[in-house]
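We modelled the chain as a single entity of 361 amino acids. Its sequence is:
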Amino acid sequence: MSFDKNKPYNNLPLLPPQIEVETKAVLKKAILAREALGRLTAANRRLPNESLLVNAVLLQEAKSSSEIENIITTNDKLFQAAVSETKVTDPATKEVLRYPRALWRGLELVQARGFVNTPTLIEIVNIVKGNTAGLRKVPGTAVVNGQTNEIIYIPPEGESIIAEKLKNLEVFLNTTNDGIDLLIKMAIAHYQFEAIHPFHDGNGRTGRIMNILFLVQHGLLRQPILYLSKYIIEHKNDYYNALRDVTERGAWEAWILYILEAVEKTAIHTEAKIEAICALMASATEQIKRDLPAIYSHELVNELFRLPYCKRDFLVTAGLVKEKTAGRYLMNLEKIGILGATKVGREKLYINKKFYELLKS
């Protein structure tokens, strides 16, 4: 294997790697990561509705995954835009909001096809970027140091070469009898996808969506609630250095350990967040039962914790009340301090302040 950072890496080795990747350290870490994922799934089952957290966590994942690629928005803009009818004009927020749509579409496609493939990845990136560019067709793509403009990496060039590398990746991802632990396989596939760099833009986000699709496809996650990008944001230099070391030195063990650590730590963090949300929901339930017994229902509490912002339409669409009554419910919840009102354009939204702060942490 030869690598020259100033030339397209057309001889990027195919998968599987031709070295032992399941070292003792890697296998030990894979066990810990699997155990953490198991505890996360168990914690999520303790929520009144297993799908309750999905939208909120996906928005956080979308924000962080986009931030890794320097597309920046705020929690407030993002959560407001997710529920408001006011047209989103901020380009970064619009782009971040496409991420959850891309992931949901990816899950639909994987459920229908039973596996992750190149057409699925192309459809995902087209949604992420809001275009139909598809695979790179012309040369000239290079990964550069943002501060020095030094070339770090030039991915493979030529549509046929890119398609060949992706086909090999697809076969590797969907071969289940090769004896490679699924989490280790995910880590290897993530490197390979980033190294192929098949699209002009959006590769990082598409690769991170691919991780979640793979985990759900193989039953390691029941819901797409693993917030992996949080760990990558907090250890961004290590992420890029580990990617580079695989390319330049074949340092697979350090890369796989990084991804397994990300899975473990993220699962632990999300499990703790679920426990805190369960406690917050229980507290809100008791307060509403005590102060507003006439409006309390299990379904109402669930609706208040679907996203940090709520509005009348949510209660109406959920079949809880009529529109006029919905407004009165929300105003009463504001009076007892569970919600706070704010105007976004002409629309009145209500923020679940404690839930919002918990999601931000």
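As a brief sanity check on the tokenised model: The chain has a mean pLDDT of 92. The chain is about 60% helix and 5% strand.
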